[in-house]
Specification:
alpha/beta, 2-enoyl-CoA Hydratase, Chain A, domain 1, two-stranded antiparallel sheet
């Protein structure tokens, strides 16, 4: 009786009461190998607390940390024709889109919003590399056009965060057409005399780099971001020579005059506040007068206002 009471019954009870430990509590830094607790990493904006390596961050989490009080409202983007080429490789294109939407909880690879940064009203847009590599398809072209249109209508600067592997092959030539189309959108801002600031994040490559990502009035990059048209491996195989250390990384481009700044993500809000106020002819920011940044973690953040249309 003692054996059943003292051993069998507790053993059976433990099988039903056992709680599984979540497997997403820790993240390994891809640069230094440190194990980072998810809450600490989220509060540090997905930047390694040991080596400063910048990991991927979702557009919503980025905007929550950027805008005053973490408040922003979405701008509606026109939906393009679904699967115009009836493209299929290992999967059908619509199936890939649905899988990406489930994984990211976003409609597409770019999010367009508006709000205040350091007391300056702006329009901002950011690519999500987790959504099919942030690839530039017709929706991304529509998003940039909607952002530029909204910026012109409301007389606001446009800040763009790029992160992409290039054009979206499932849309073929229609994807490549977004390069001149987005260039026209940038020209709309120039004609309206509105600042256009680009923040290049890791990675920004392909047709994105050959169009809107390198047309900013001010070009900022996050540390060690890969910024290029063709990747270093492709170039090495083509010219059959060893490339310099750090080639096509943000610091290398800064040294060679292709960037204006390389700024840590945790300091990006303050940097943009200074630059925006300077370009708009406003007084220099005073810390005591600026709205406070959000005090809560960016984990699971969502927009606090409903979407606005580009025409409203």
């Amino acid at each position: 009786m003692n054996w059943i009471t003292n051993y069998v019954r507790p053993k059976i009870g433990s099988l039903f009461n056992r709680q599984e430990t979540p497997d997403n509590l820790w993240t390994k830094c891809g640069e230094c190998g440190s194990m980072l607790f998810h809450r600490e990493l989220s509060e540090n904006l997905q930047v390694c607390t040991h080596c400063g390596h910048h990991m991927q961050i979702s557009p919503r989490d980025r905007f929550t940390a950027l805008f005053d009080g973490g408040a922003f409202s979405e701008i509606e983007v026109e939906k393009p024709i679904a699967d115009p080429l009836q493209f299929r490789d290992q999967k059908k294109y619509p199936d890939r889109l649905r899988a990406a939407q489930r994984a990211t909880s976003e409609k597409e690879a770019m999010l367009v919003v508006e709000g205040d940064v350091g007391g300056v009203p702006i329009v901002a847009t950011a690519q999500d590399f987790s959504f099919m590599g942030g690839s530039m398809g017709m929706y991304v072209g529509n998003a940039i056009l909607a952002a530029a249109t909204r910026a012109v209508e409301t007389n606001r600067p446009l800040v763009l965060f790029s992160a992409a592997g290039g054009a979206r092959m499932q849309e073929g030539i229609l994807s490549l057409m977004q390069m001149p189309r987005t260039t026209v959108a940038v020209e709309m801002l120039r004609e309206a005399n509105l600042p256009y600031i680009v923040v290049l994040t890791h990675p920004t490559t392909g047709g994105v780099t050959a169009s809107y990502a390198m047309l900013g009035d001010v070009q900022i990059a996050e540390p060690n971001a890969l910024i290029c048209f063709a990747g270093p491996r492709v170039i090495e195989q083509t010219i059959r020579e060893k490339l310099p250390e750090g080639f096509q990384r943000a610091e290398y481009l800064l040294d060679h005059g292709m960037l204006d700044r390389v700024t840590d993500r945790r300091k990006m809000r303050d940097e943009l506040t200074v630059i925006l106020r300077m370009l708009l002819g406003m007084d220099a920011p005073v810390a005591a007068d600026l709205p406070p940044p959000p005090a809560v973690s960016t984990e699971g953040a969502v927009a606090t206002q409903p979407p606005a249309t580009a025409e409203s």
